[in-house]
Amino acid sequence: MNAIIASTSTIHGSGYLEYLKPVLTDHFKDISQIVFVPYARPSGLTHDEYTAKAKEGLAFLDATVKGIHEFENPKQAIQSAEAIFVGGGNTFLLVKTLHDLDLMPTLRATILNGTPYLGTSAGSNICGPNMQTTNDMPIVMPKSFETLGVIPFNINAHYIEEDPNSKHKGESRRTRIKEFQNLNKIDVLGLKEGSWLEAQQDTVTLKGKLDAVWFEPDKEPIKLKEDTIL
Question: Per the structure, how many domains does the chain have?
């Protein structure tokens, strides 16, 4: 496996994918074409509009970007891709589309075979066993919540800690993740914006300057520092 699994595509005060430029320059070295998967459609963007955004964000690379919807056979496009980028947006919509097109098994096999993969936000949420720790609204119903399972734990992207000075009385991220683990014995990583995972072969390493929070069922959460191997 050769994957960058990022909490977000954009951090505050920065452009689309800008904070990841040094990492992606190396990650996509010698790649001539990247297949972009726009199915998560943030803010309701069309597939063409989202692909155009990805092209602009990756313009610093010596590679073209082509949307998977532009291929006659999307399954074959994944199988033959030099590299793959699954963008963020709504995880429910992304997962539904991947299942409806029967692309989940193909994408999983391609990633595990070592094709360079970039996932941001929703594209990172799908890397775990299921998508049930997403923050997104269920705007559509997937046939299954099961996802790629290329890493053995779930991601909670855009993770934030509870602000002790906030007057908000709704559930914190910690509370929601603990609710999930009360019924699902799956580990979860709270991945903050500006952090990412580098997955090389069987090793997954936390990168970025911020800590992450690791949740195991029936245990207290712990903070992880940069370069921690999960």
Answer: 1
Question: Is residue 30 situated within a structural domain?
Answer: yes
The domain in which residue 39 lies consists of: 2-161+186-214
Does 190 map to a domain? yes
Active site residue 163: no
- Judge if pTM exceeds 0.70: yes
- Catalytic residue among 7, 136, 187, 195, which? 136
pLDDT in tens, 47-105: 999 999 999 999 999 999 999 999 999 999 999 999 999 999 999 999 999 999 999 99
- pLDDT digit string, tens, across residues 99-139: 999 999 999 999 999 999 999 999 999 999 999 999 999 99
End-to-end CA gap in the chain:
15
For residue 42, what is the domain's CATH number? 3.40.50.880
Q: Any catalytic annotation for residue 168?
A: no
Residue 12 annotated in active site: no
Write down the catalytic residue from 9, 121, 124, 195.
Answer: 121
Report yes or no on 230 lying in a domain.
no
